[in-house]
């Protein structure tokens, strides 16, 4: 099996919310059985959640030479229909009792899911190395997909397993959506290590989630910045998590003061906390910062994962070898995807990246070779002739003690700040104006109770512009 690496097939692989236990032997057999539903080399949409059926379908599809596109259940029907029209899948796997798809028939039922088969299907050309499609960090309704290979999946899973020291004794819990590259990497890295996974669709804000951790002695927990911000608000000191040995954070920038507070508290609980950086375009992980380096390298994304390499280039594509000089962060490794797909014709394309990913993030490195993200190449606006980094602006506001999201255009800066008793919008506008050299008339500050979020927990900058 492509992602399995287990010595004892009787070891536990998955535990469902109803306490059903699936051994590796059980999982292997279910994957083999499910593979019989598929014809070789076709596209299948898997619209699922963190449960055995979805994981079995995913593993079966990749193992049997299908190409799955992973989608979450929160995607709406119009978005699904749009993707169907663009990519023309032969199969759709979804938890439905009735068939909403014109031109598809019910082929089989599996647990609570239905497998729909297109009644008239024309063969589409798929590159022989294409194994998986994932949506990019934005809306799951976007036709822009990342094209991944088996080699990408296996390489990244092994690298993650190596630096996190995942063994057959480790047990994770699905704290993130399976169709999000970070969430999928947790599943893959534990299966390839012979570990086990507790399957849950509860959020960290629900009591059931923490009861499952206690009940099944979960040892590892993954979260995005939003998760950890919520944990801090609820009181991280009060967490009763004696079985947890490792906690990881990725999926966006978390303020260093918060990282420091989290690491200090978790250290007192004998929990190792890893801050990580990655992109779907690199399957999941690109770099990591281990617990012992967090205080020594504040704000750093660390160093490249095992078997990966990081460097910085200027606008002309020339190597930057001076410390603390900012340029575009470049990564190379076996986990770099083949490239994007925006239409059905792109599924036949070969490896456009050739193992090298231009991340689109601006970064620098220090004398010890640790990297620091300074912003994004596309997170800039130009106002009154001044080029302004929206990421740097958010950092300025965070340093003043406020959570913010900055966006805008070439006429105005739009800054959204979470309600805070110490906030004076007029004073903050004046201070920002002075710091960045922009007239106050071009700065608009809106106070909000919370930020709209994408499925991966990142701020949805497209939606936030519509907040009144």
Defining key terms:
26 strands, about 30% strand, alpha/beta, about 475 residues, five-stranded mixed sheet
Mean pLDDT: 92
The gyration radius over C-alpha positions equals 23 Å
Strand line-up of the largest beta sheet: 4-3-5-7-6
The major β-sheet equals: 5 strands, mixed
Tally of alpha and pi helices: 11
Oligomer type: single chain
Distance between the termini: 51 Å
Helix percentage range? 25-40%
Q: Which class do the helix and strand fractions yield? A: alpha/beta
Uncertain runs with pLDDT below 50, 5 residues or more?
A: none
Number of strands: 26
The coarse overall form would be globular
* Beta-strand content bin: 25-35%
Write up this protein.
This protein has a 5-stranded mixed beta sheet, with helices on one face. It is an alpha/beta fold and 468 residues long. Helices cover 25% and strands 28% of the residues. The model has no long low-confidence stretch (mean pLDDT 92). The chain starts with 11 loop residues before the first strand and ends with a helix. It is built from 11 helices and 26 strands. Helix 10 (425-436) links the parallel strand 25 and strand 26 (443-448).
Topology:
Layout lengths: L11 E4 L5 E3 H12 L7 E6 L3 H12 L3 E6 L4 H11 L3 E4 L9 E7 L2 E6 L11 E6 L9 E5 H15 L6 E3 L7 H11 L4 E3 L8 H9 L4 E4 L1 H10 L11 E4 L6 H13 L3 E7 L6 E5 L13 E2 L4 E5 L13 E6 L6 E3 L14 E10 L5 E6 L3 E4 L2 E4 H10 L4 E5 L4 E6 L6 H12 L6 E6 L12 H4 L4
Helix pairs in contact: 1-2, 4-5
């Amino acid at each position: 099996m492509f992602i399995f690496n287990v010595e004892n097939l009787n070891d536990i692989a998955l535990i469902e919310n109803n306490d059903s236990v699936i051994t590796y032997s059980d999982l292997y057999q279910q994957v083999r059985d499910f593979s019989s539903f598929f014809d070789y080399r076709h596209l299948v949409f898997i619209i699922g959640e963190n449960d055995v059926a979805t994981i079995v379908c995913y593993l079966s599809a990749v193992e049997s030479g299908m190409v799955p596109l992973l989608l979450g259940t929160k995607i709406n029907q119009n978005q699904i229909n749009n993707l169907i029209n663009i990519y023309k899948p032969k199969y759709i796997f979804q938890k439905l009792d009735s068939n909403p798809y014109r031109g598809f028939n019910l082929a089989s039922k599996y647990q609570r899911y239905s497998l729909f088969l297109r009644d008239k299907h024309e063969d589409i050309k798929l590159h022989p190395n294409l194994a998986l499609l994932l949506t990019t960090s934005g809306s799951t309704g976007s036709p822009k997909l990342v094209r991944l290979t088996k080699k990408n999946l296996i390489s990244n899973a092994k690298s993650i397993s190596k630096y996190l020291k995942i063994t057959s004794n480790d047990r994770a819990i699905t704290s993130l959506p399976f169709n999000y590259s970070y969430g999928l990497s947790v599943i893959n890295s534990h299966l390839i290590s012979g570990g086990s996974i507790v399957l849950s669709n509860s959020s960290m804000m629900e009591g059931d989630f923490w009861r499952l951790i206690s009940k099944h002695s979960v040892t590892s927990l993954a979260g995005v910045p939003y998760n950890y911000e919520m944990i801090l608000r609820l009181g991280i000191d009060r967490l009763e998590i004696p079985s947890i040995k490792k906690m990881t954070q990725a999926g966006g920038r978390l303020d260093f003061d918060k990282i420091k507070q989290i690491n200090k508290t978790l250290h007192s609980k004998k929990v190792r906390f890893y801050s990580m950086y990655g992109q779907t375009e690199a399957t999941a992980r690109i770099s990591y910062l281990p617990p012992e380096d967090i205080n020594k390298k504040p704000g750093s994304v660390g160093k490249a994962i095992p078997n990966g390499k990081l460097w910085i280039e200027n606008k002309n594509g020339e190597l930057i070898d001076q410390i603390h000089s900012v340029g575009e962060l470049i990564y190379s490794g076996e986990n770099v995807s083949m490239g994007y797909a925006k239409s059905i014709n792109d599924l036949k394309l070969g490896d456009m990246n050739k193992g090298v990913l231009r991340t689109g993030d601006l970064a620098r490195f220090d004398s010890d070779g640790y990297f620091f993200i300074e912003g994004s190449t596309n997170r800039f606006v130009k106002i009154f002739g001044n080029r302004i980094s929206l990421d740097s602006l958010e950092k300025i506001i965070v340093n003043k003690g406020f959570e913010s999201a900055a966006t805008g255009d070439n006429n105005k800066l739009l800054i959204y700040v979470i309600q805070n008793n110490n906030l004076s919008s007029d004073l903050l506008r004046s201070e920002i104006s002075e710091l960045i050299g922009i007239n106050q008339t071009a700065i608009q500050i809106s106070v909000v109770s919370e930020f709209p979020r994408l499925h991966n927990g990142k701020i949805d900058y497209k939606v936030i512009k519509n907040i009144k």
